[in-house]
Amino acid sequence: MSSTAAPRADRGVRVLVAEDVDTVARELRRVGSEETGVRLMAPRGLQRLVRLEAVPARAAIILKQEMLAHGGDAAIHAEVIDGEATHSAVVLLGSLHQLDEVCGALQRYSHGLGTTGDAIRQALAHFVARRGALRCGPYTLPLGEKTYIMGILNVTPDSFSGDGLAAAGISAAQRQAERMLAEGADILDIGGESTRPGTDAVPLDEELRRVVPVVKALAPLGVPISVDTTKSAVASEALAAGATLINDISGLFFDPEMAAVVAAAGVPVVVMHMPGTPRTMQQHTGYDDLLTEVCTALQEATARAEAAGIPRDQVVLDPGFGFGKTVAHNLELLRRLRELTSYGQPLLLGTSRKSTIGKVLGDLPPQERVEGTIATTVLGIANGADIVRVHDIQANARAAKMADAIVRE
Ligand code: HH2
After folding, report:
1. What is the 3-state secondary structure (H, E, C) of the chain?
2. Ligand 1 close to Cβ of residue 156 (< 6 A)
3. Candidate list 135, 231, 354, 369, residue with the active-site label
4. Ligand 1 pocket, 228 CB below 6 A?
5. Whether residue 354 lies in the annotated active site
6. By alpha-carbon position, which residue is closest to atom 13 of ligand 1?
7. Residue 111 above 90 pLDDT?
8. 115 falls in which pLDDT band (50, 70, 90)?
9. Average pLDDT for residues 193-211, to the nearest whole number?
10. How do residues 238-287 score in pLDDT, each as one tens digit?
């Protein structure tokens, strides 16, 4: 090439992958930028959409003005501009830098806008980093370092995937639990009531009879024992028998005593999204905005927990894959799971062998859904899951370990 040729900048054009500021900063340093510039530029390298619910009209207009003033924008309901709506959902569009500047500017306003700014900053911080730990009695599970495998141990005669052990007795449950631990389970989840679509509730006495002796037998195994129940009396007796985590698919909704029982024991609780009950949930699949409805319900469940004295960071969120949702809904939940990390609470995902996987793979029966489950485990981890609740421990534990090595640097 002759030395008089014009300098070329059309080669090696590449779009970079960066999901957090540290990665952006690393790429800027690789160019040779000076450190002051790196710190100033990095937050400009990431764009975020942030949704706020039910913002009073005046505050919505201020948000839009401030975003525009800082080079971003905000979508608000058209009727707010016309003065006809009192409230609006708002979607902020901006770089992390612009959003941070706006949050700072909001501190100057009254109408609670300062706390709105703080909440936006918090959600943005939670979206990338998982901190803290789940405190299950004597077991502490640090979050963010690895994905925890919750092994499903159903002591039911009618679980949808045919894995129930109801008639097999305590020693069969013990053998299965030991096998699950050897294969890599970190938590065991014991359920005495099937939740498959259309089922009725199991009477209290029967659920106690199925669950409590198994909890007692498995508590010495050295891992947290979770109990999958919506009944406070079952939770209470299981906790006394050694359980250290409660998994309530109703999100502390069915039994008004449940939150107080969990709070008194000082253990974490999983709150799951389910519209209606297992009997009726598949009649409630008409969502206007799936993620907003799931997130709103989970934040209501979190408020019930906090009101009873359960610390917010010990309330695990679960979007309820397969509960009152169509195949398309379940796939959307997985695609957008990371939105649920905005609240800074641990995330659990329960997709194992569920019918959505069977349907996507061409009507495969539950026992042939392991590969499909692994795909959901891996994408769930990439999208922020801290715990996956699964039947096939070894396959999912290996997949999770591999996914962890890739996504949890
Ligand atoms: N799914 C089932 C049961 N409990 N708990 C949480 N937190 N999340 C879930 O997705 C979830 C759950 C259904 O699965 P399974 O226990 O295998 O079946 P069954 O309820 O029929 O026993």
Report:
1. CCCCCCCCCCCCCCCCCCCCHHHHHHHHHHHCCCHHHHHHHHHHHCEEEEEEEEEEHHHHHHHHHHHHHCCCEEEECHHHHCCCCCEEEEEEEEEHHHHHHHHHHHCCCCCCHHHHHHHHHHHHHHHHCCCCEEEECCEEEECCCCCEEEEEEECCCCCCCCCCCHHHCHHHHHHHHHHHHHHCCCEEEEECCCCCCCCCCCCHHHHHHHHHHHHHHHHHHCCCEEEECCCHHHHHHHHHCCCCEEEECCCCCCCCCHHHHHHHHCCCEEEECCCCCCCCHHHCCCCCCHHHHHHHHHHHHHHHHHHHCCCHHHEEEECCCCCCCCHHHHHHHHHCHHHHHHHCCCEEECCCCCHHHHHHCCCCCHHHCHHHHHHHHHHHHHCCCCEEEECCHHHHHHHHHHHHHHHCC
2. yes
3. 354
4. yes
5. yes
6. 195
7. no
8. very high
9. 89
10. 999 999 999 999 999 999 999 999 999 999 999 999 998 888 777 778 89
- Nearest 5°: phi and psi at 3? -70, -15
Active site residue 389: yes
Q: For ligand 1, is residue 392 a contact (CB within 6 Å)? A: no
**Cα-based distances in Å from 128 to 46, 48, 131, 295, 363:** 12, 12, 10, 18, 36
Residue in 145, 221, 229 with CA at minimum distance from that of residue 195: 229
Tell me the backbone φ, ψ of residue 21, rounded to 5 degrees: -65, -35
Of 156, 228, 315, the residue with max ligand 1 atoms within 8 A of its CB, to mutate for a pocket test, comes to 228
Q: What is the pLDDT of residues 361-383, one digit of tens each?
A: 999 999 999 999 999 999 999 99
Backbone angles phi, psi at 93, to 5 degrees: -125, 115
Q: How many residues are listed for the chain in this entry?
A: 409
Q: What is the pTM of this model?
A: 0.94
| pLDDT tens profile 75-102 | 999 999 888 999 999 999 999 999 999 9
User: Which two structure tokens, joined as six digits, stand for 46?
Assistant: 């990431």
Q: What phi and psi values does residue 146 have, to the nearest 5 degrees?
A: -155, 165
User: Does the beta carbon of 376 lie inside 6 Å of ligand 1?
Assistant: no
